[in-house]
Amino acid sequence: MPTVIACFKWVIDEAYIRRGPSGDLDFSSVDYKIGEYDRNAIEEAVRLKEASGAKAIAVTVGMPEAAKGVKDALSRGIDEAYFIADSSFGNLDSSQTALILTEVIRSRIEHYDVILCGEGSSDLYAQQVGPRLAEQLGIPCISFVQKLSLAKDQLVAERRVDEGIEVITAPLPALVTVLPDINVPRIPGVKDTLMAGKKPTAKIIKDDLPPLSEPLVRTISLTSSRMERSCERFGTDAAEIARFVGSLRKKGVIG
Amino acid sequence: MDFKFTEEQELIRKNVREFCLKNVEPIAAEIDENSRHPAELFQKLSDGGWMGIPIPQEYGGAGADFLTSIIVVEELSRSCASTGFTISTHAGIVCTMILLFGTEEQKKNYLTPMAEGRHLGAFALTEPGAGTDVMAVTTAAVLDGSDYVINGTKTFTSNGPTAGTYLVFAWTDKSAGRKGMSTFIVPREAPGFRVGEHFKKMGLRSSQTSELIFKDCRVSKNNLLGKEGAGLPMAMAGFDGGRIGIAAQCVGILQAALDESIRYSKERIQFGSPIARNQAIAWMIADMATDLSAARFLAYHAAWLKDQKLPFSKEAAMAKLYASEAAMRHTVKAVQIHGGYGYCKGAKVERLMRDAKITEIYEGTSEAMRMVISGTVLR
Ligand SMILES: Cc1cc2nc3c(=O)[nH]c(=O)nc-3n(C[C@H](O)[C@H](O)[C@H](O)COP(=O)(O)OP(=O)(O)OC[C@H]3O[C@@H](n4cnc5c(N)ncnc54)[C@H](O)[C@@H]3O)c2cc1C
Q1: In a 3-state reduction of DSSP, which class is residue B139?
Q2: Residue A117 contacts residue A101 (beta carbons within 8 Å)
Q3: Which end of chain B is less enclosed by CB atoms within 10 A, N or C?
Q4: Does A245 fall in a domain?
């Protein structure tokens, strides 16, 4: 029976972030959700489970509040979860998250065939955790995947790349980062949500882990993006297009 | 005191919201316009296990508490009040009454298929001459061998044209007064039963409302719900839960009115600035948000009492009274905020205002609610 692992992050739902009066970000009434692409990773793990009788495991690193996210993942058809929680895990950078995941997967999950990650998280979208995790585990990493199936001892993945679609195979175990086109995540029913809390969850605390590595990224400040219109209008004839290009040059938008 | 929902309740609210944005919101205006029962939507609701939320899993439901079912009715109603109401009548009244008063056999034969979402349930008490005055019912049932034979006409039955199972109230002993009415489980295929006229309505148009006609309609005596003569107290118990459902429906309508009013008043520019900058508009929105919170807490509190198995009749009546009148008041204001655009088809607030009105009428009018509440507090 193959084992599929889906990694996910419990992130701030951006719909609830408000812009403060001075362009600062107001997080005072935010809600959380499973990152968008991570939902696709979870859905794909469950689809592989349903197609091949695999076991689907979810792993997340986060604040203790992410317990709700663990239930959310379990309600989506995941069989069991590993929840690595500490109140200091709200601001881990990708390298630290990847190291923690490596440690837990290596030491606690004896056998696995596929690890699925979202292409990037909904909050930082650094696209780092998947590739770093694969590198540290010493397994192949296939990114930008929009279609996936398991065959004997290998996986077949369709990657969307600039030039078109690339179909590749990789020996198992392997790590795959998925694009949103790969599936449409299901909406759990009431019963699925009520049963989620009854599925096995292994909770891992900071003391169970080796000392944390230093972060490689430092956040200096956060500010909201702004759109300013200069309200200039251009026509479509040659002279107007030249004026348009000139205007972009003058503003330094193009060289 | 703990105002926190469980994690499950929060997740379920998110899921039903997502379900509504995907499946309900896009068709809500069309099913209202065409007075259409959206069978395809109810198939999806049944596939997702949303049809029997407060019914135990052994009888085909989801096994959630009543409060969770109220959250779902609220969120459905936020997108489509008809859909929220249909689910509320089906699960909150019909399924719940069979769960409370049914025999094991009735639960297996009638409750389970309904809770699984295979067909809808309907509650038939009102008659042409008997609205608020339930004692004026004339439908009667007579025992004939091992069958009851029912004769009479019911009116305004929600889900009348679409249901598979009906709870029908009829006299078995008129001389016994309040102890003379009984409740029957009537399957759609019962001989002598047919669906009569369908009503065309101001609002709540995708919910189907009709007459039901019983002409020597035969049901087995095993279809008597509870004891002979226990019909009225059972109806009142059904209403108690149902009224919390109506309050939740109103909370959904109010939330939608507020969402629309906030969005529109920030977008609509008159005299060079958004109309929300005018105190006249801003205060309407403040009052709307405040009444929404009050209605919500009354509804949740009544549901919580029910889940704790504490008395909740008065609280259910208060929640329904307050929430329905608030929904009516503020949907009128929401149309006002939208100006002429709010009066035209295509504006959601136009539908909200028409849908709000019925909540002051069915499952007991506002006047009837005041009778229930004053009857309790003056006792
Ligand atoms: C869309 C819709 C769906 C419905 N669904 C169902 C259903 O599924 N099942 C069902 O059984 N019924 C249903 N009904 C019926 C509904 O519950 C009744 O319409 C309601 O109880 C009022 O009865 P009535 O219409 O006969 O009004 P009446 O009782 O005739 O009342 C008319 C007016 O007089 C007032 N009034 C009456 N008596 C008094 C009094 N003693 N003191 C002060 N004021 C009084 C009322 O409040 C009201 O304002 C539905 C009705 C509608 C319109």
Answers
A1: coil
A2: no
A3: N
A4: no
The atom of ligand 1 lying closest to the CA of B363 is: 17
Check pLDDT > 90 for residue B110. Answer: yes
Contacts of B63 in chain A (CB under 8 A): 191, 194
Please provide the DSSP assignment of A173-221 as one string.
SEEEEE-GGG-------HHHHHHHTTS-EEEEEGGGSPPPPPPS-----
**CATH number for A117:** 3.40.50.620
CATH of domain B236-377: 1.20.140.10
pTM of the predicted model as reported, rounded to 2 decimal places: 0.93
Report CA-CA distances (Å) from B149 to A1, A133, B125, B194.
60, 73, 17, 14
Give the separation between CA B102 and CA B182, rounded to whole angstroms. Answer: 13
Q: Say if the Cβ atoms of A71 and B72 lie within 8 Å.
A: no
Is A172 part of a structural domain of the chain? yes
Average pLDDT, chain B: 97
How many separate domains does chain A show?
A: 1
Say whether A71 and B7 touch across the interface (CB within 8 A): yes
Domain locations in chain B as residue ranges? 7-120, 122-232, 236-377
Show which residues of B are catalytic. 363
Would you call B62 and A68 a contact, using CB atoms and an 8 Å cutoff?
Answer: no
**CA B131 to centroid of ligand 1, rounded, Å:** 4
CATH class of B7-120: mainly alpha
Asked if residue A81 is part of any domain, the answer here is: yes
Q: Which domain holds residue A125?
A: 3-208
Q: Round to whole Å and give the CA distance between A154 and A156.
A: 7
pLDDT at B281 (0 to 100): 98
Nearest protein Cα to ligand 1, atom 23: B131
Does residue B182 have a pLDDT over 90? yes
Q: Flag the least confident range among A17-21, A126-130, B147-151, B279-283.
A: A17-21
pLDDT digits (tens, 9 = 90+) for A146-205: 999 998 889 999 999 999 999 999 999 999 999 999 999 999 999 999 999 999 999 999
Residue positions counted in chain B: 379
Q: Which of B86, B123, B156, B320 to mutate to test the pocket of ligand 1 (most atoms within 8 A of CB)?
A: B156
Does the beta-carbon distance from B57 to A191 stay under 8 Å? yes
pLDDT higher than 80, residue A255: no
Q: Does residue A189 lie within any of the structural domains? A: yes
pLDDT of residue A37: 96
So what's the architecture of B122-232 in CATH? Beta Barrel (2.40)
Q: Which of B229, B276, B249, B216 is nearest to B331 (CA)?
A: B249
Tokens of B144: 């004939």
